[in-house]
Design brief:
The chain is an alpha+beta fold and 369 residues long. The chain has 8 helices and 11 strands. Keywords: Membrane, Signal.
Amino acid sequence: MKRPLFTTALFALALAACSPSPESPTADAAPTADAATHPEDAAGGDESAEAGGGEDADKPRGFDINRIPLSDAALGEFPYFAPPPGYHTTDRLSSTTAVGQFPFWVGDLYVGVEGRIYQANIRVDEGKTFSALEVEKAVADTIAAAGGVEVANMVIPRAKSLEVLTRAFTSDYANGLCWPSEPVRTYVVHRTDRDIWVHACTYGGIGAAWVIAETAAPTMTAEVVGAQAIARGLQSEGRVRVPFAFQSGSATLPAGSEAQVAHIATVLAQDPGLRLQVQAYPGLVGSPDRARDLAQRRAQVVVAALVAAGVEAGRLRDTDPHAAAVVPASADAADLAEPATPSTDATAARGIELVRLEPAIAPPESGTP
């Protein structure tokens, strides 16, 4: 019977050693079998590292995933990322666990992640020389394009790695780990419906490895901003932020948005001369063009909902940069008439901003000098 990967006390901790299993038993530069099978010995530890952690070990402090910007990038199928051109993995060197646990290093502690987990050892194609720098840059660029953020890039301190090195752990993740003397890079793609964690490393100038974990994120909801608060913000600042819990990558009006739309419509009904620009913001998407497109579609869907609620369409503008010119209510609002750019603020990426526009100037009557 296989031992559990972590004890409850250690679930928020773990990782840092072992080499990937070689593609061939005779791989020249592969680590010794003893180091691969018993990394606690290679690191100078013993199985006592399996115990301990304290009653608060599963409550890591100092890391809040909600501070990471939300991603709106388009994703494919799990595991979402593939080795860069010129590199490969194989079925023998990779595996997927439907429900597993893996500890990710975030700079000063481990965060335990539970969910679907993929691991792979990455080898260079025949006839090509392995380049750690090339692999590291390609991995970083690929994850950044998916809206991911690097949260750690360092050699994990030996004292920390000794807390979690066990035979069971390194056996279970032999293909996804590198030598403890090599830097570990941890990335997080934070989304509304899931979080994607990546542990990436290279080893000995001959290969690389990564572990990709996907865990469900709590369902996002948006606090409703009342009509009075919206009116006050527009009156005092010329703009007001209104949350809408758009799902990552989606421009579909979130379920339950009817109350928020009704409050905005009420403000417009109470002030017949009010005109608004609806400005939406994307999260991290990796492409400025896609950011503008997503922001525009989110603004348009809110405008459409307001029109359906009885607001005259001529009193609303969306973020289309090619729409008729609009005159902002103040110099501070001028930037909101420009094409949208990705927001690094999680709240901004989940909502819209209403900007008060100057009343439309009626064209002169025919025959007027």
